[in-house]
Each structure stands twice: as C-alpha cells, then as structure tokens.
C-alpha cells in the first residue's frame, strides 16, 4: 500500500476523470456544509459583507505587504491558492492525461454551438497573474444584460467603500412638522420580522418608533408629516418603461416597491413608491400613538434641519452581494446612483452611467459604454475582455474593497440565479461562480472557476442573437464547465 502522502501528491493526477470530478464535487459540497455550520459559532465573527471583519483587515494588510515586495507593480498580484483537498499542501496537479493542449482546443468547438446565436465572444484570464489564457472576439463590445451589474458593483465599492451604509432619516422641518427623507435605500422594509444581525434591512417600523419617542420627549403627540425624495434627479422610470423587473428608481421606497411579499425576482410594482412609503410611515406613526395632521405631502427638508431619527441600510458590501446573487435590478440602480453622489455627479440615469464609467476608468477598465446600473438597457455595451479583467481586479489582494464582487457571485447548482442550472454539467456544479445575464436574444455569463490544475481563472462568455434562452444558457454553462474540467494550457 503506498504511503498516504505519495498517493495525495502523485496518484491524484492518475485518478480517472469521472472519479476526480466526483471527489471535487463532494469536497466542495462538504465545504459548503462547513460554511453553513459556521452560523452556529457566531463567536468566530463578527461577519460583514460575506467575510469576517478580522479576516478582511488581515487581507488588506497582507495585500499592502505583498505589493511592496512585488517586482512588477503594474502586474496583477497572485491570489492566495485555495487549500487543496486531496493533493499535498501547496501542490498543483499536472494537466490531466488526455486533456486538450489548450483552451482554444477545448472551447472552440463549444463556441460553434448554434444555440449561442450569430455573434458571440469569450475571454479567460488567470486570476493570479492577470494573463489572458484565451480569447475569441474578446475585445468587441456586446450587450451584457445583467453582467453589467459586475461593473456597477465594482464602481460602487470603489467610490463608497464596502462598509458604507445608506441612511433614511426623519428631521424636524422648523414649522413644527417632520419630514421623512429618503437616502436611496431600496431595501428599507415596512414588513415585520426584518431579521437580525448587522446586515438586516433597515426597518420603517423602527424608524417610526424612534421618531415617536423623539416627538413625545418634546411633548408632541400630533404632527404634520412630509416627505423628501429629492436626493435623486431625472426620470424615475427606467428607459424600458414600467416593468415587473424594476420599480421607479426613487430615493424613498420600501421593499423595492413590491406589491406582494416577495423579496426577489419579478413582481408587480408600485407606480409611486415615494408616496406609498410616506403613507406607510404615517400609518406606523399612528400605531406608535402619534397623530398625523392633514395630508402627507412632498416637502423639501432644509439643509440645517434637525435629525430626529434614522435607520441604516446593510453595508455596500452586503448590498453588492445581494445584487449579484439574485440579480437585483432595484439595488443595482441604487448602487449606481450612490456612486454618482459619491463622485459629485447628478443621481440620475445619465449621471450614474457617467460615474460608473469614470470609476471603471480609474480601475484601468476603459472602453465600457454604460447606460444603466442593472443591465436592462440594451444601450449598455461591454466586452468579454473587460468583464473578465474586472474579475481579475476583484481577486487582486491589493484591492480588498472589491472582494464582494467575488463573494456575491452565484454558485453553480446551489445559489441565486445559478441555483437551477448545471444539472447536466457535473464538472461545473459547485465550482463555477458566475453572474448571469439574460435579455431577449442576449445571454451572458461571467465569473470565476478553479480548473483541474487548481488554477483560479476568470471568464466571460457573451452571446447575441440567441433564439432559445434555455438552450443558450446550457451552452454557456457547458463553456464554463469545460474550463472547470480542463487541465488546459493556453
């Protein structure tokens, strides 16, 4: 019987492909179970935005140290390798026997699938070195659909930082009344049971309760109520028009303007989320024993208005993760406008587009044409190369603030918009993490994967002119699964 260490380092590469895939899938599944079990040991926290705070701080410090030691400052840093499961620590298996000589041989035939339409592109990068491993029409801009949310997320994290929160406030208006001031948090909730922990949604009920306490402390049990949503400018309705995929983009709304009890996916939306939120707030004030005088009406809060109460959104890191995992259009548009405000731009569709583009330029990712934050606008134009390089930036230890772009990616077969996919692609299940994009005739996929050599790679696959969305998604999934299953050299 061979020694255990010898089997781990030498025999792994000789294991049959099917068995290797099975072991990798079981290992990833076991890791997912350990992560879930981690909730029972909260003392290991605190957690924020998908990472332990202490771990994030260590990563930032380590990234600074490594940057100082790196001979090529302009080259992407090599990310820490994941802990091997069966191979010896620090060892990488060689390319599997029988594997294609390169990614071109592996991916080329799959890109010819008719399901991908008449125009398609691909880019694959080594996340550690920043080297492009494969490209096919990679520099041509295509409609990215929801993969443009990766750009929105990176821009928001760059402009605001991962720990920033958005406040919804109540101020005294100077005439004896109060004004509910929207800060631009679409996750503000009027529902009971908003959850617990530092990343729970801000509660409109808690805001009303705190406001009532402040008013009663001043001897007031009746008050005129106004609302101010002037933080955002320009048209509120997305250029695609009223749609169940997005509410009017407003600085004041509750539960993303949803008229049912859902928290993701399509739903009937309020046509006036600002007035609806203000009306619900007035009702909650009455529940707390404060009478409301007259009608609830729009009223601009003064710059020096006294703050009476406030609630805060989850961190930008957490909002980014939710945006990417669930492909949340409302949060994406809010993040784009918050980026505009932080960049000194008007918080409108146009201002947000300019701010996101500017932040991408600052990250060395020029060439994108951004029209909105969500990807619902077909005027968005981004190349596969830019998307894949953006993910390389997010993996760079020198940019820990961008890490939620990676931690928010859905896991193939398990979470978010990839939960129901990869049923027939065992090689990618649990290993591919990617943002999806879907519009009529457009299908895209961009994310990360660990290939059979243990190398972390980023990828982007884009297809335009598709006729069958399900078939196009399966074709994209096969491409990403092939990268996962490939010990391919470029």
TrEMBL record:
What are this entry's molecular-function GO terms?
serine-type carboxypeptidase activity
Enumerate the residue ranges of region (Disordered).
59-85
Please give the superkingdom of this protein's source: Bacteria
Keywords, in A-Z order: Carboxypeptidase, Hydrolase, Protease
Composition-biased stretches (Basic and acidic residues): 66-75
* PANTHER family assigned: D-ALANYL-D-ALANINE CARBOXYPEPTIDASE (PTHR30023), PENICILLIN-SENSITIVE CARBOXYPEPTIDASE A (PTHR30023:SF0)
State the protein's name.
D-alanyl-D-alanine carboxypeptidase
Q: What organism is the protein native to?
A: Streptomyces eurocidicus (Streptoverticillium eurocidicus)
């Amino acid at each position: 019987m061979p020694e255990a260490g010898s089997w781990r380092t030498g025999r792994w590469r000789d294991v049959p492909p099917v068995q290797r895939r099975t072991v990798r899938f079981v290992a990833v599944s076991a890791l997912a179970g350990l992560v879930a079990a981690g909730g029972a040991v909260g003392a290991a926290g605190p957690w924020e935005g998908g990472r332990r705070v202490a771990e994030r701080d260590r990563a930032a410090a380590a990234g600074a140290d490594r940057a100082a030691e790196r001979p090529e400052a302009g080259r992407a840093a090599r990310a820490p390798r994941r802990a091997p499961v069966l191979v010896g620590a620090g060892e990488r298996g060689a390319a599997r026997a029988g594997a294609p000589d390169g990614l071109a041989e592996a991916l080329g035939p799959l890109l010819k699938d008719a399901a991908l339409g008449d125009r398609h592109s691909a880019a694959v990068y080594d996340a550690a070195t920043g080297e492009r491993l494969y490209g096919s029409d990679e520099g041509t801009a295509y409609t990215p659909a929801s993969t443009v949310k990766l750009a929105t997320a990176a821009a928001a994290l760059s402009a605001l930082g991962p720990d920033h929160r958005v406040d919804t406030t109540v101020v005294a208006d100077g005439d004896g009344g109060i004004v509910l001031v929207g800060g631009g948090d679409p996750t503000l909730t009027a529902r009971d049971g908003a959850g617990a922990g530092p990343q729970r949604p801000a509660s409109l009920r808690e805001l009303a309760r705190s406001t009532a306490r402040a008013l009663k402390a001043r001897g007031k049990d009746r008050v005129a109520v106004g609302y101010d949503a002037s933080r955002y400018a320009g048209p509120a309705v997305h250029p695609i028009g009223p749609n169940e995929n997005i509410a009017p983009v407003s600085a004041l709304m509750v539960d993303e303007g949803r008229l049912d009890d859902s928290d993701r996916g399509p739903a009937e939306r309020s046509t006036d989320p600002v007035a609806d939120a203000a009306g619900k707030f007035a009702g909650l004030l009455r529940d707390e024993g404060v009478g409301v005088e007259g009608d609830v009406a729009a009223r601009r809060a003064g710059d020096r208005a006294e703050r009476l109460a406030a609630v805060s959104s989850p961190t930008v890191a957490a909002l980014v993760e939710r945006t990417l995992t669930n492909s949340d259009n409302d949060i994406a548009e809010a993040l784009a406008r918050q980026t505009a405000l932080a960049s000194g731009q008007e918080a409108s569709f146009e201002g947000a587009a300019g701010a996101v583009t500017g932040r991408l330029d600052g990250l060395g990712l020029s060439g994108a044409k951004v029209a909105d934050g969500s990807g619902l606008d077909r005027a968005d134009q981004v190349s596969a190369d830019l998307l894949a390089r953006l993910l390389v930036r997010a993996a760079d230890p020198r940019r820990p603030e961008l890490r939620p772009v990676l931690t928010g990616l859905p896991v193939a077969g398990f979470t978010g918009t990839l939960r129901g996919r990869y049923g027939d692609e065992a090689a990618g299940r649990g290993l591919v993490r990617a943002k999806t994009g879907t519009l009529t005739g457009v299908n895209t996929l961009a994310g990360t994967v660990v290939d059979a050599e243990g190398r972390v790679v980023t990828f982007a696959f884009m297809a335009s002119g598709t006729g069958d969305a399900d078939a196009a998604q399966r074709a994209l999934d096969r491409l990403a699964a092939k990268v996962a299953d490939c010990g391919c050299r470029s």
